[in-house]
Amino acid sequence: MQTLFVQEMPRDGRRTSIQRVASVVLHLVLLAAFTFQFHKVVKAVARPHKVAAVIIPYAPGHQAVVQKPKPKIQPPKDPPKLPLKQPDPPPVSSGGDPTGEDDVSVATADFYPDPKPDLAMLPHGTNGDVVVDIVIDESGKVVETTLDQGLGHGFDEAVMAVIQTWTFTPATKAGKPVASKQQLLFHFVRA
Hey, is 117 helix, strand or coil? Predict the structure, then answer.
């Protein structure tokens, strides 16, 4: 009698061969998918006579995207010619007065030294304005000063004393010197 020895494969061996077959099949499927995607991209690029395309590279886990480029806007060869109307020039005037009379000019300062009062009179960190209303007579001299806003501490009086020395070319109306009023503003800062 003859005995036949059949050797059984261990169960681990069967699993290993099934895993190998599954790996080969999976690799073949992935290779086929990449090949299909590659042919799809090549076909899109091979059509230059049609619409151009921008291809974004394939990234694992994402599908390749083909986007149409944005059209370039070209300006027209000949821009439209529109008639341009020039605005009318303003009427020529030699001045004006709210009362309707012409040839009015304002007083301009001829001699006007800057008031430089002692900033030490002000507390540290103080800043502010001194506003003075003045009346200028027909000869161009300051005849009246009125404090409109001040800083105090003897500071305002020092500014007004300097303004009293100022001289002006007087304002004129119809070519004749006249008295006028002006407002002066001085800004001071003590650090």
Answer: coil
* pTM given for the model: 0.46
Task: Name the band, by pLDDT with cuts 50, 70 and 90, for residue 54.
Answer: low
Q: What is the pLDDT of residues 172-182, one digit of tens each?
A: 988 899 999 99
| 171 DSSP β-pair partners | 178
- The dihedral through the CA atoms of 23, 28, 34, 40 has a sign that is negative
Q: Beta partners for 128? A: 188
Assess contact for 145 and 133: CB atoms under 8 A.
yes
Rounded to an integer, the average pLDDT of 67-85 is 70
Q: Whose CA is closest to 13, among 21, 3, 25?
A: 21
Q: Judge contact between 134 and 142, C-beta under 8 A.
A: yes
Superfamily the domain 104-189 falls into: TonB (3.30.2420.10)
Segments making up each domain of the chain, as ranges: 12-67, 104-189
